[in-house]
Design goal:
single chain; 394 residues; alpha/beta; Aspartate Aminotransferase, domain 1; Aspartate Aminotransferase, domain 2; 2 domains; seven-stranded mixed sheet; four-stranded mixed sheet; binds pyridoxal-5'-phosphate
């Protein structure tokens, strides 16, 4: 099959829910992706933040191979060596969260955290933030703000409200004695790369404690070193009651998890479950991934490389750039115009970047990206972002 045949087949049989790129990717190594003709691309998307460890990490590959030859599937009612190892490891990454629920994706982790909040508190209401993205199944979609994701799917789950992000007063007003949980991202990813400030996160913790609500932190995009700490909440000295993670947890193998604190109650057999959750294959991949993230100090690398990249981006002089912001290697470049033509131009120059909303170019490179690759990225961005590109769509 040549590249055009592959594209044609996908276009014919796709559900239609994805805007397909005219680019067939067949292989990856570190921060690089390769197309069907062997052409090289610098990946600044990491599959939306999945490939923190880079592509085809040898330790993850080896763990998957070994475990595939040992035991792939096992329901969580039966204990297993790989799962036990992962449970110990993942709960050791953050203080105060000693239990864990395993699932298979980000949205499932959010669903679990929302269900746990209701069963634990006996309350119904959930307060989320404007611009928030928490996933696309009905519970997490109800916590997601943007009407682009919600429209056409109503009625959503009742009890959800949205307040301005980084606004303590608004949160204080919205959380009542009937609130089951507050759910927040530590850097709003899809919403435009907006980092939380420390006072806000600390106030959220205090407000939840005062009213008996649980504090859910969604670290699905910010987790596992991305922002310069293992979890972004660790920048703020706050412990949540529930922490959702997924994306890079198992080095690219689908897996989600909810870390659970002492305030969460009533999690008894049968309350929730998942057929594939905690399967030994994903657990073995996650053990290898988390071990490599620690051994290679990817959080430290994200902090150093993020600062290096951010400093260089701030020096780009372009009338098109409104603001550069972010945390670690999660960076948004807010433009004064629509970014789709810029993303396209970058792709023509073999840089794969993401948008976040209409006007933000989002950079989520693998944390193993080299300084040389960062320099190249900055050179290309300096050229492309100073051009005046106009969206063809309107
Ligand atoms: C990606 C993401 C999700 C949803 O994860 P899926 O695995 O796509 O279901 C939820 N929350 C945040 C913050 C995310 O970035």
């Amino acid at each position: 099959m040549n590249a055009q045949q592959i594209i044609d087949i996908e276009n014919k049989h796709t559900s239609g829910t994805y805007a397909k790129q005219p680019l067939v990717i067949v292989r990856g190594k570190g921060a690089l992706l390769f197309d069907a003709n062997g052409e090289e691309y610098l990946d600044c998307s990491s599959g939306h933040g999945v490939a923190n460890l880079g592509h085809a990490h040898p330790k993850v590959a080896e763990a998957i191979y070994k475990q595939a030859n040992t035991l792939i599937t096992l329901f969580e009612s039966f204990p297993n060596d790989q799962r036990a190892t992962l449970m110990e490891k993942i709960t050791s990454l953050v203080d105060g969260l000693d239990r864990v629920f395993f699932c298979n994706s980000g949205t499932e982790a959010v669903e679990a955290a929302l269900k746990f909040s209701r069963i634990s508190t006996g309350r119904k209401n959930v307060v989320a933030a404007m611009r928030a993205f928490h996933g696309r199944t009905f519970g997490s979609l109800s916590a997601t703000f943007n009407k682009k994701y919600r429209e056409g799917f109503e009625p959503l789950v009742p009890g959800f409200s949205h307040v301005a992000y980084n606004n303590i007063e608004a949160l204080d007003k919205a959380v009542t004695n009937e609130t089951a949980a507050v759910i927040l991202e530590m850097v709003q990813g899809e919403g435009g790369v907006y980092p939380a400030n420390a006072e806000y996160v600390q106030a959220a913790r205090r407000i939840c404690d005062e009213r008996g609500a649980l504090f859910i932190v969604d670290e699905i995009q910010t987790g596992f070193g991305r922002t310069g700490k293992m979890f972004a909440i660790q920048h703020f000295g706050v412990t949540p009651d529930l922490l959702t993670c997924a994306k890079s947890l198992a080095g690219g193998v689908p897996m989600g998890a909810v870390l659970i604190g002492h305030n969460v109650k009533n999690l008894t057999p049968g309350v929730h479950g998942s057929t594939f959750g905690g399967n030994p294959l994903a657990c073995a991949a996650a053990v290898a991934a988390l071990t490599a993230i620690e051994e290679e100090d990817l959080a430290g690398q994200a902090a150093a490389k993020g600062k290096y990249l951010m400093d260089k981006l701030k020096k780009i002089e372009s009338p098109n750039i409104r603001e550069v912001r972010g945390m670690g290697l999660m960076i948004g470049i807010e433009m004064k115009q629509k970014v789709v033509p810029y993303i396209r131009e970058l792709q023509d120059l073999h840089i794969i970047a993401l948008n976040a909303g209409m006007t933000v170019v989002r950079l989520l490179p693998p944390l193993v990206i080299t300084y040389q690759q960062i320099d190249h990225l900055v050179d290309v961005l300096s050229e492309v972002l100073t051009k005046n590109l106009v969206s063809e769509e309107n």
